[in-house]
Amino acid sequence: MRRKASSNVQKVITASIFSFYTVFSAQQVRPSKSSEIYRELKTLKNLPKVLYLAAHPDDENTGLLSWLINDQNVETGYLSLTRGDGGQNLLGTEQGAALGLIRTHELLEARKLDGAQQFFTRAIDFGFSKNTTDTFKQWDENSIIEDVVWVIRKFRPDVIICRFSSYCSSRSRATRRFSCRCRKSF
Question: Which pTM does this prediction carry?
């Protein structure tokens, strides 16, 4: 009788350990905040996805991204063709790749606040360019278009908002005109 009770106790202990391990090993390392879960549940009502496309990090429209996500509950992504390595830096001495790293980090942090997904292409921002000829001496147009197509296929947006209109005047910066060429991706 004692052996049977002892055997039953061992089974209960083994089952308890197994269930404890199963329950706690399935837990997330970083549980989602209730506000994030609530927002994700609200987005289930909306099926469309929006991709916002622009040439540089400073071309983002944070207000629009935040409104789409937080007010309209639409899953949203931002594709910046460059990481901002060729821009000006009024706050520090970083230039080139170091500046691009800072701006990349800034965009990733901004996405944590507004909830959009962040995408980039392989285009390196080399500074101001007055025409597309100069731009395509630096960039391989086909590889950038391939990157844009890859993001579109991965994210699968229903709507794509280009920062600059499809009509691009000759006075626009070359990278902005390149944003217009991205229509080939659609």
Answer: 0.68
